[in-house]
Amino acid sequence: MADHSGLSSSEANSAPYDVPREMRALVLSGTGFEHLAVKKVPTPHPGSFQLLARVEAAGICTSLIKLIEQGPNHKLMYGWDISQFPLILGDEGAVTIIRVGEKLRENYCPGEHYVIQPAVDHAPINYRERYHDGAKGVRKLGVGYTLAGHLAEYILITEEILESGCLLPMPDAQVPFAHAAMSEPLSCALSAQEHHMHLVQENPLAPRQVIKGLKPQGVTVVIGAGAMGRMHVDMALSYRPRAILVVDFVESRLETVARLFGPKAKEAGINLQTVNAGSEQVEGVVGELTQYAGADDVIVAVGSAKAIETSQRIVGRGAVLNLFGGLKKGEDIVGVDAGVVHYKEINLTGSSGGSPWDVARVLDLIATHEIDPGAHIARVGDLDHVVDLLDMVKAQRIDGKAVVYPHRRTTNIRSVSHWSAEDESNYLQQGAI
Fold this sequence. Notes:
CATH class of the largest domain: Alpha Beta
Oligomer: single chain
Largest sheet: 8 strands, mixed
Helix content: 25-40%
Number of strands: 21
CATH topology of the largest domain: Quinone Oxidoreductase, Chain A, domain 1
Number of domains: 2
CATH superfamily of the largest domain: Medium-chain alcohol dehydrogenases, catalytic domain
Distance between the termini: 39 Å
Strand content: 15-25%
């Protein structure tokens, strides 16, 4: 039996976990922020094929805003009436198993640490009557949507999650919970870069071969230096391109990129440059960097039609253009230069999330210090701060990710420039209010 807690199996099975009858949770009971609140709700009891976990840390995802504003009209709700069956939100988190259903006791132990991939490719098993038409045709569920989420003190891990392989063990008990919680958004960046495919030939008479991911020793351009753009930079470093160019209009974001990743890039022998598109000609910088051949990989990490259209000018022959930043419905029709696609033979791709493999791979990269999730954390708080944090995210007043610790009570939201294992340890050891 695998034990990911650092305890022996017998110690883990006998580990004391007092579970209260009620827990605090972020509950959405209708459409709109006025229906969002932290409430006390009954703590779930796991069925025979289910697990109950303590949420150690949870991330705040911008996708929550779309769910709150759309309510039952969100594409992952499938007719679920949230006024009658409220949701517990939160799709990012790190958990510890504390109760194991009787049919799962040979496979799981209390004390084991896991991360849940929230995109669950599985038809509903529970509460099928709550979905439209008895859940006919429903093949994908979301943790923090119709499956209970991480923005609570405890989370029920259901059959759908287990059967789809979405419960991923933490490879190292020393990984901070906040870092593990960041594995989901980081996995979105990894998945996007895994979608890059380059055709190469050793010589003109050799058959074409496929290189998956960013082109080694190539030139990568990331357009957008916000939270997800910086995750793309962090992930891109692991592919070892010869140069990474980061483009934005906000100078402070570009300065953050240089501060967070400049030393790491230099150590790896990667030329990391930033370009302010408001004062520099991006095409000219890319031209000089590539001897006017164009970039090998271009990732548009902002939801901007203009960025998508202008990015087509900087791709090189055989390049990959990745449309990572989503556009609002009704504004998502953009111009594509067919001449660029045809004559430069580029691949146009996109992605909207990761798979269980992506989360597992990110956890390995975190454990081996290939990537640093602490570089992406900008706010730290507790469960009672989530509504305020979401307001800040909506108003674009957080440049980075926010993490909360549901079992720690504190007065203020903390602003940070980096969040390390030592920071987390000290924070959790401090007395709660």
